[in-house]
Amino acid sequence: MKNPLKLRRICDAEAFGRLLHEVADNGRIGFSKFRIDKSLQSFFWETFASLHSPLFGCIHKPSRAGKITVHFPLPWSAMKNKGTWECVDFFAGIVGWSLTFFSSCAAPPTKPKETLPLKTYAESQEFRATSRLEHVQAFVEGLRSLDLPFASEIAVKRFGESEEGRPLLYVRFGPKKEGVPTVLVNANIHAGEVEGKEAVQILLRELAMGQHGELRGKLNLLFVPIFNVDGNERIDPSHRPDQNGPLEGVGTRANAKGLDLNRDFIKLESREDRALVALLRKEDPEVFMDLHATDGSYHGFHLTYSPSLSPEVDPGLDAFNRGTLLPDVRKAMRERHGFEVFDYGNYRGGDPKKGWITYDPRPRFGTNYVGLRGRLSILSEAYSHLDFQKRVEVTKAFVLECLRQVAFHGEEIQKLCSEADKRAEKGGLRFGYASKLAPPVEEEILLGKTRRVRRPDGTYRIVDLDVHEPLRVPVQRAFRATRFLPFPLGWWIVDPSPEVMARLENHGLRFQTLEKDRAAEVEVFETSRACRARRVFQGHHELSLEGTYRKKQLSIPKGSLYVPAGQALARLAAMLLEPLSEDSLFTWNFFDAQLKAAKEGGEFPVVRVLSWIKSGTPR
Question: CA-CA distance, 138 to 143, in Å (whole number)?
């Protein structure tokens, strides 16, 4: 093979780039592995990353040992001309040759490391600590004051206050634009899971610097960096002890009232969740993201994700999320970033061989709830045993790739959401309940390995060993309803309490007060069994009801509260008001007083209206 290339000492990044191009132009025999010492990483990585193409098989970012490894096609003839190299060792291997550049080489001048215009608090502390509210506020305001190409696009808004009176803030990037999707990214709902908070700050900085131009003008971007602000101010090293950093501690899972904000989306007892749902109503984002870290199995994925798991999600939205958006994000995470991501779950019974199962379909969870509002939602769960910096990196990459996909499919997503609204408004839907895990599908998952690392205080954190072992197991990533009811025309709420009225308003349901007596054909629920949980959960003894419906005709009095089923939020209305729902206002004790009255001979608190009787007297 003709080969005019002669190897030579590389004195700068430009020369190294020329060498790589010459190698690519002169054929491909074997593979060559370059391992660059840590002292040369800055000049090497910034230059070579710009040359990344299919010609060069694989680029690995710096390892924990401080090495960069690159594989690319190299001609055999080039290998023979090694005499002009200084301090370079050649190693013959099964797959080719390895050239190792050490800092003892006749030193090529290193390119100065790029200076960030402004660091997050976590970056300034080398990821030993996470941001408090004051740090996030200072960082965002600092970005706005810098002479960056798009710093003026950043606007900070207040959307409520916490239980202790701290401001709930969101950041809008860019002016609101019609005809493009809106995405709301929510971070730090659990204040011990802090990577999302740091990731969105870094992403905001990159946007202000002019990066990610493919998003500009194609999305309305909203970020909530710290949702659980009260929990975030209670930073302590004893919280989430198994988690791998930050060493100086994290906040609490619950808010100041002891409520888990990611179990509150039906009952809306916290100021924070009421404010967030009000923001959802105001901005109506087509896509909602909620950023977390895991608590479960020791798997081999950098991050796991989930769409809304409620079986009652609009089928068009569910098919797009599961079949297009998330698979494309998964592919991009591997190809662009080298991260392995998969559907959120845990080992069944703690045993990997028994399978991988997802979590819970009930809409008390934020992403499940947003699905019932006829919008796309995405749960992000960074692997908690990665080090803190890596969790921030993978979370930022995941958010970015989701945003890229939403921008790419923007028109289609808006159309899907509009069609979901129209289907709900038209009526004729079915309400599913008694949900169970969908049948398993045999797939490959990645097992991980960890080790315990002792802290100075004697406790242990669990550290990922970066081992990824494939195993084929049954995977269950979805739920299916097993029983169904046709939607009624609407629901008559008998003698609603102020709390019930407030929740209907909080959720944004459309309802009306009857201006006159109306005769109707209805279905009345007859309870055969009421099961109240012994254990208190989130301040409640949860209630589940069993029973059947009996048809009858009756007169609904003037002034009664009526919730029509023909509305965009019909699926949410059914979940809140149907007594057989798995997560309703009945579940959370909002109708307990009315149920007691019904047991003593009164009307059941929610009646399904099937049709209005135009004339005559109900039998």
Answer: 9
Query: pLDDT confidence of 114, banded at 50, 70, 90?
Result: low
CATH number at residue 223: 3.40.630.10
Cα(25)–Cα(107) distance, integer angstroms:
27
Query: Do 250 and 325 belong to one domain?
Result: yes
Q: Which amino acid would we find at residue 498?
A: P
Which residues span the domain enclosing 253?
A: 150-426+443-479
Among residues 612, 606, 618, which one has the least CA distance to residue 431? 606
User: 434-457 in b/e burial notation, b at 16+ Cβ within 10 A?
Assistant: ebebeeeeeeebebbeeeeeeeee
Instruction: Encode pLDDT of 132-149 as tens digits.
Output: 999 999 999 999 999 999
- What are 189-201's pLDDT values in tens digits? 999 999 999 999 9
pLDDT tens readout for residues 538-554: 999 999 999 999 999 99
Domain tally, the chain: 3
Cα–Cα distance between 577 and 587 in angstroms, integer? 10
Tokens 């991988």 correspond to: 356
d(CA 291, CA 107): 44
What is the pLDDT, as a whole number, of residue 600? Answer: 87
Instruction: Tell me the CB-side half-sphere exposure of residue 139, using CA atoms within 13 A.
Output: 29
Alpha-carbon distance of 175 to 217, in angstroms, equals 9
Identify the CA nearest to 384 among candidates 196, 157, 602.
196
Q: Where in 383-468 does DSSP place strands (E)?
A: 430-437, 441-447, 450-454, 460-464
Based on the fold, state whether residues 358 and 453 are members of the same structural domain: yes
Does residue 437 lie within any of the structural domains? no
Q: What is the 3 state secondary structure string of 40-87?
A: HHHHHHHHHHCCCCCCCCEEECCCCCCCEEEEEECCHHHHHCCCCCCC
Lowest mean pLDDT segment, chosen from 109-113, 365-369, 379-383, 445-449: 109-113
Query: Do 472 and 547 fall within a single domain?
Result: no
pLDDT of residue 64: 42
